[in-house]
Amino acid sequence: MPDIAFWNKCNNRCVMCTNEASFARHDPALYGLRAQVEKLERWLRGRGGVYLKNDEKRGFVSLTGGEPTIHPDFFRLLAYFRRRLPETGITLLSNGRRFADAAFTRRFLAVAAPPFAVAVPVHADTPALHDKIAGARGAYAQTMAGLDNLLAAGGAVDVEVRVVLHRLNVRRLGRLLASLLERYPDTERYRVTLIHYEIEGMSLANHRRLALRLRDSAAALAAALPRVRRFRNFRLYHFPRCLVRKELRRLCWVTLPKEDRVYTEKCRGCAARRGCLGLMAEYHKAFGDGELRRL
Ligand code: SF4
């Protein structure tokens, strides 16, 4: 799954963003319509090294940013990607704010033919905390209104709610899940993905505020278990299987490329190694492997 940097500007300033601050200062022409078309055509011809991450994976693509929906040619480019990748699953990673506009959402749904998913991060159950993490006042209200509009489309696209856990929101995980269950009680209609934050880009720059051990993330997850069980479709990203409760191990996904993962001496001979992400390489650098235990 190549991660395609669709646009390098964003209307949020998330504290745990994995982009470098310099990313937003790149020449926007590098992400303009012409450049995107030229890159995708090269990739479709089988040229390697077109995209920075997961370039060799061909099953589906992620459109990332910045915020893709504020690209000046968003709809034209989206229509082009859909036309050139007719069978490929496309996931749009978006802060969801533009979808608060119902007319924008209708136009989007007319272009985003399946297989298509929109993944939207929700940082907290309160506007104040969500906006603080997103670095934008009013972001929570727009993101939730955007999710309302996407979910009202009745499955026209798949919807995923992403929760990126770090020190600023870990204590509110249970309340955040409860607020999702209250607002969107039909959990057949969307997926929730809980992600331990990555230490990269702005997240690295802000790490003193964000630092969170996997064991603390896993403890919050265990405390929220009765709520987790109420979701029909729940995933865990970036969690080593030995740190989560046995019944949750089947929810752990390996999503990062090999070069971004580490298996240590403790993983040698581990019964859960197959299907386990191990540790994120940057996490291993920051915290070591003291929390792992061979299963
Ligand atoms: S010891 Fe290593 S392989 Fe085993 S579950 Fe933990 S991280 Fe995964």
Strand content: 5-15%
Low-confidence stretches: none
Rg estimate, integer Å:
19 Å
How far the N terminus sits from the C terminus, by CA atoms, comes to 30 Å
Total tally of structural domains: 1
- Overall average pLDDT: 95
User: What class, by secondary structure content?
Assistant: alpha/beta
Shape: globular
Give the helix level as a range of percent. 25-40%
Number of alpha- plus pi-helical segments: 11
Instruction: Please identify the top-level CATH class.
Output: Alpha Beta
Using the 3D structure, state the CATH architecture. Alpha-Beta Barrel
How many E-type strands? 10
Specify the biggest β-sheet.
Answer: 8 strands, parallel
Could you give the order of the helices and strands?
A: EHEHEHEHHEHEHHHHEEEEH
The hetero molecules present are: iron/sulfur cluster
- What do we call the CATH topology? TIM Barrel
What's the name of the CATH homologous superfamily?
A: Aldolase class I
Q: What spatial order of strands do you see in the largest sheet?
A: 1-2-3-4-5-6-7-8
